Amino acid sequence: MGNFVRLINITFILSTLVLISACGGGGTGDVATESPPAATPPAIVNEYSVSGTVSGLVASNLVIQSNLADEITIDADGSFVFPTDFENGTNYEVVITLQPQTQTCTLNNASGQVSNQNVTDVAINCVGNTPPPPPPVESEYNISGSVAGLIASQVVIQSNLGDEIIIETDGGFVFPTAFENGTNYQVLIAIQPEAQTCSISNANGQVADEDVTNVSIICENNAPAPAPPPPPPTPPPSASYSVSGSVTGLVTSQLVIQSNLAEEITIDVDGSFVFTTDFPSGSDYEVIVALQPQTLTCSVSNAAGQVLNDNVTNVAINCEETAYDIVYVRYPNESDEDQFINIPQGEHAYDIAAGADLMLLKSDGSEVLLVDCEQCSVMDPFISFDGKTVYYSLIEEPTIESASWIYKINLSEGNYEPIRLTFNDGFDSSLYSNNNTPEHDQGSVRGIRDMAPAPLADGRIVFTSNRSALTAFRAHTNAIVKGSVQQLYVIDDHDGTASTKELSNLRLLETGNLHLVQHPFQLKDGRIMFSTWQDAGTKFSYAMTTLFTIYPDGTNLMQFTEPHDHHKNVDHFATQLAEGSIVSGYYYPSFDYGFGLLMKYPIESEGPDFLRGSSDATYTHSQQGRISFREFDRKGTESITPHTTGKDIPAPNLSGKYSMPSATVRDGLLVAYSSGSVNHFNAACNGAVNLCEPLRSGIYLIEDAPNARVTDPASLIAIKDDPNYNEIWPRVVASYYDIHGQEKPDIIEYDALDNRLNIGEAAGLVGSSSMLNREPLNEGAPDPFKPSIKRELNDGNWKIEGAEAGVVTDADIYGVRIVVSPPIPFTKPIRKGRNRGDWDSIERHLADTRLDDVVARYGSLHSERWEILGEFPLTHTDVIDAQGNPDTSWVAKVPADTPFFIQTLDANGMTVISELTWRGVKSGETRTDCGGCHAHSIEPLDFATTQAGLGTPISNVANLDLSDPIIQEGLWDLTQGEIPLFADTGIEKQTGYSYGVEFTRDILPVINANCVSCHTANTNALVLDGSDNLVDAYSAITDNSEKIYKSPQVSKYLRVPQARQSLLTWIVWGERLDGRQNSDRDDDVDYPSNHPTMSLTDLEKRTVARWIDLGAPIDFPELNMSGQGGFRYTDDYQLPVINIHQPKRGENTENEAIIGFSDAKSGLNWSSLAISFYPVDESENAQSISQFNRSNRDVITFNLPSMVTSKNYILKVEILDMAGNKNVQTTKFSWGG
């Protein structure tokens, strides 16, 4: 492809997008050549003909065939002769290959031997005329009926498939052409009999799995015309006439036309049509196209006029393939400073160059500059469902401080005026009680980034934003530059006047994604698909971006592809083809500009969605027979560009790479494609000799994308490739119907509310059918003590996939822990340069000491703040489930909009299995569809068949009375303000909403009381009394200064977050706990059998174990800088949750407001609740609402003030938690009652 022609005649190429013609022939097949005359053949002798006669044939299309393969179609009685003669002495045979419709024909003298003369006595006799319709063949059914009262001759009837039948007497009739199942049929009178008028009953309808036999035609004599009165003569009696015509060029289905009498006809093929409702003479008629067929434009000739004493027969509809425009981003190529340009991609979503323009490439090859940028840049164009509007994001300048906003342009209007949809409402920083100066606001260091808009079928727009002012747990080297969390948001589409989030219903969609969400779009089935960076817990901190889906209300967060790839590739830039498959970029997120190969995934499959290991990849370049290096691949995964790679290397044979696929009309796929190396990694390119050229992206078309496999980029169709720019983000300006065959994505019908949740309650249910239906680690040698330093060779346990702690058997599985992982809000950073003393004091607590601008005020060995919502045993194990295992099902109620994950515990209350993917539930959501523990490629156990699914009461829990409110209705209620925790006596309850363990507050006292006396500088290598040069006991326990250990083994004493495998826990409990003996491995840490026995209480032992299982958190020491408080591990910096269940956005007819509240840390401050109500037009002052009813589930109800029909109102709700953190929620709605 190095010499690939870049500038191709654009008019011709765009016409190929309009119609990719099927070109026949090849080689010299189109060249006329002259051949010498053929020699005269000798006379044929000893060959004789086979012939015969047909009688009784009244239908058409009798087909017979000889054993020499000659076929003859016979339409009437008479004789026939096969054209090919038979050699003397050979056998002949005649068979009927197609019986005539409504008749049965039989053969006499059908076979024999040719013996020195022609065979002339083959006889075919046909019987039957109007038998009952034959049974349908391949879902086709007949239309038939009867005629009565016909005394004149020749009533002519017609079907909407164009068949005509002439009927001369009463009796039955059958149309010869059958109708496909599900299609519409229509029967009309084409010509009335003389002196009679016939009417039709059951004349139209839809074919539904059987023949239509009840079409009834009744003919009656016309009354004689009255004699004309004396002059002036009476005008002739009024008459009605039909309007009909023809359709040509209809190569797709479902053209819908309509008359001005409101009659519609759906037409699927070329042919004639007749409106069944006649027009009175003298009236006007008009025919319009009510629905254009997919990818065609049909125009009507002779569409309107006046009916003048005759049928109108000349309405002509001609359909032609539609020509489409393309929107794209014209991105700069190399800059003055660097030939390798930055493009937002992968895990570098905020990197961008100035000067990216939004362009409209017209179908005639001309271009319109829609948005002209010098310092600004346009990204993420997306076309509306009607094909008339482009949405996009615009960043004002290529700096961290700059903001980006969502815009749209109406492409059907000539002025192309941008309309701004999002505005500067500020970050959420000020909602946190200790963010009380401008320096504590994220707006002091960076701008709002509203990005990647896409329309939703309900009239909203989904996009991503960092407005929540959260900071990634692992922000690489700078929490400000790389660490700003991007999440899913929604907003009402509007005309640009809704300039605040209250007016536009702008809100956060969900809370289960805590790093970087990118490029959402709605699937045909109504779900939203997006890429998300899932580097939870101890997993690798990069290349964990994968595809997820979610419902438009924020429920049902689900993985679509697994974030378990050893080879650092990401799933990004996805689109959906018309037949449903997903195509996504798959690339290394760094030096490849977001370019790689294109993966295709089926939208659904039989059985489990995933395969254990990798899909077959015979045609994928240099992948050793593997499509990926994931632990689980989605079934049916394939590369559609196998000539290239997604690796961080130059493209094989400089054949280029792909990005930003976008489904287009006629099963095509638009792509950004760059020839050459498409990589600028020095190790591969050798910058000294510049072996890697800059990015050279253009817009190309892949034909027949559902079946495509691009093995040579020469097969691509070039659309636009200007060497002066990089053309990216192509989007066809076409309606969703033209691409996908439906007007817009489906509207999802949501499940009914579980009756254990109150209407409006700010909580949801989560559960599993089994903790034993699980897949062990997908590794050859799982859980080595020291994994490989190379990610590709890492075993994956706790680093790439959800995890097991030691040797785990079914007997070890005893209970469940639900862990909450609240995000880190932005606050005034501790800067390595400006606050060096403070930074030095916390360096030993940082998981990555390269981190500048530290936002957190605590340390942990995975950088997250894990706390416990509850621990509880599996209580139904005396029952055997449908898989033959002890029933380990469970269900729990948890606070809504609070990120969490699930762990399996052993009888000591220590983690044995853990999720490593954030999740969350919305208010009223039930997620009990987890069919097992890490059960990706095995059949799930149906939750409804289990004890928890049946609602069996929880019983036999030590230390809990059956009437305890946390175990009512067959579930564990973790929202009551009491936290269940394991103890040696059973379940002990702690007051509060979440339970944490911190080193200084909870662990250091245990160490001081039990360990310090022995662990001094003079007596022990582990110095815990602070007498060594190490600062404190925490530093001693976590010390890895010699770089001996590798995560998850962070030191000799801690394997995080695995208390069961940590030496510190073994010492405290007095035994090895990981399921191994000291002799099992010679490269790990052994249990010291000679260690003195510790006399700790059960609570102290469990406290140490929980601290390790939670990531060994520690509060930072007091800092010299001002304004550092409120964000330590032991502080509450979670916002309370508000769920405005009713009124909902849009029109409401119920005037009762229903609002739920929850808080997962310090609890709600009810005295701070403030509710206001006001009209959008501010025609009335805001009303404060203080009277309401409050349930024991923290749900309030009240009647809204009087409202005016169709007028828009805003309901605003505010509340604080007991730590002073505030949440504010609003809804804009209208009154239709």
**CATH homologous superfamily of the largest domain?**
TolB, C-terminal domain
Mind telling me which CATH architecture of the largest domain this is? 6 Propeller
Number of strands: 80
Helix content: under 10%
Distance between the termini: 65 Å
CATH class of the largest domain: Mainly Beta
Counting H and I runs of at least 4 residues, what is the number of helices? 9
Specify the biggest β-sheet: 5 strands, antiparallel
Which fold does the CATH topology of the largest domain refer to? Neuraminidase
Q: What structural class do you assign from the helix and strand content? A: mainly beta
| Overall domain count | 7
Summarize, please.
By secondary structure, the protein is mostly beta strands. The chain has 9 helices and 80 strands. The strands form 23 sheets. A 5-stranded antiparallel beta sheet has the order 59-66-65-60-63, with no helix packed on it.
List keywords for this structure.
1233 residues, mainly beta, Immunoglobulin-like, five-stranded antiparallel sheet, 9 helices, 80 strands, elongated, disordered N terminus
How does this structure look, described?
The chain folds into 7 domains: about 45-130, Immunoglobulin-like (Sandwich), CATH 2.60.40; about 140-220, Immunoglobulin-like (Sandwich), CATH 2.60.40; about 240-320, Immunoglobulins (Immunoglobulin-like); about 325-740, Neuraminidase, CATH 2.120.10.30; about 765-780 and about 785-820 and about 865-990, no CATH class; about 1000-1115, no CATH class; about 1135-1230, Immunoglobulin-like (Sandwich). About 5% of the residues lie in helices and about 35% in strands. It contains 9 helices and 80 strands. The protein has a 5-stranded antiparallel β-sheet, with no helix packed on it. The protein has a 5-stranded mixed β-sheet with strand order 73-80-79-75-76. A 4-stranded mixed β-sheet has the order 5-2-10-8, with no helix packed on it. Helix 6 crosses helix 9 (about 1100-1110). The model is unreliable at about 1-45 and about 130-135 (pLDDT under 50). This is Hydrazine synthase alpha subunit middle domain-containing protein. Keywords: Signal. Pfam families: HZS_alpha.
